[in-house]
Amino acid sequence: MRIHGVDVRVYVLLEHQRGVEPLMMLRLLGYVTRIWEAIARNDPPRQDLPAVVPVLLHNGERGWTAGTSFETLGKLPESVRDLLARHTPHFDALVVDLHPDHATPLKEEWLTASGKLVLWALSIAGDNPRLLAEIDRMQHALAEALAAPNGYEALAALLRHISVTHARLGARRFAKALTAAVGKKETKVMMTILDELEHEGRKKMLLDQLAVKFGAVPAAARARIRAADERTLARWSIRVLSEESLDAVLDAAPPKRSRKAARASKPARTSGA
């Protein structure tokens, strides 16, 4: 990024929390250290390290109440604080509160459309009434995000997250609310993404059913399920209810025998003595 006219390479660490953890700064220090270790390990000749800015995204009902500076975790007597503090790590985390009652003010120009949608999705996670009430105002951001490079993939990932965190809303109500919030131009694309997500959901459900009934599903079987089309998934989803083995569920449908072959397989009648 460019800061005060200078080009700087900066790593940004994003940590999302719904609760308040008193020792969160210690956890962030561990994450930052691991980032530096990975950079040094992958580039042995280097003799310096980039800046890592820890950002805490918080979505709690009462706001973030714990400290935001690592230095405050050390319990030092006031008389020796200045003497010892210089020998302990020091950094401040940037806290971005997502709850609407005490949201951190962010400049609109700081965020891309996808960034706005991500922060919104994190802030409403699990709150179905807020999703339904606020989705209309995200119409412009949805259209802008979809038009951006790799917008389709980014929006698909975002909708996958929202569908999981709002599973109780139901696929039908979720799709209805989403398509109502976009223009006609984006509706077709949005429906395609939702169909893909529904297809992925059926694959996951089948894998869960197989695991419950037969135990761990082998990698080869998982690969077949992930590559299956809608018709095949529907057939397997029915067969898992009655078949007694994983192979029987995923086996191809048995070929139909011809009438000639069926007659030939019948035992010959023997005449009475």
Principal-axes geometry comes out as: globular
Determine the fraction of residues in helical runs and give it as a percent range: 40-55%
Terminal CA distance reads 101 Å
Q: Residue ranges: pLDDT <50 for 5 or more in a row?
A: none
Structural class: mainly alpha
Tally of separate helices: 12
Number of strands: 5
Average pLDDT level:
85
User: What is the H/E string?
Assistant: EEEHEHEHHHHHHHHHH
Strand content: 5-15%
Q: How many domains in all? A: 3
Arrangement of strands in the largest sheet: 3-4-5
Profile the largest sheet.
3 strands, parallel
Radius of gyration: 28 Å
Characterise the protein shown here.
The protein is mainly α and 273 residues long. It has 3 domains: 1-74 and 88-105, no CATH class; 108-182; 199-250, no CATH class. It contains 12 helices and 5 strands. The chain has helices at 24-42, 78-85, 113-123, 128-134, 139-147, 151-165, 171-180, 184-214, 219-227, 230-239, 246-250, 259-265; strands spanning 2-3, 6-7, 10-17, 51-58, 94-97. The strands form 2 sheets. It has a 3-stranded parallel beta sheet with strand order 3-4-5, covered by helices on one side. The longest helix has 31 residues, at 184-214. It starts with a strand and ends in an 8-residue tail after the last helix. 15% of the residues are buried. The mean pLDDT is 85.
List the helices and strands and how they pair.
Blueprint: E1 2-3, E2 6-7, E3 10-17, H1 24-42, E4 51-58, H2 78-85, E5 94-97, H3 113-123, H4 128-134, H5 139-147, H6 151-165, H7 171-180, H8 184-214, H9 219-227, H10 230-239, H11 246-250, H12 259-265
Parallel strand pairs: 3-4, 4-5
Antiparallel strand pairs: 1-2
Helix pairs in contact: 3-5, 3-6, 5-6, 6-8, 7-8, 8-10
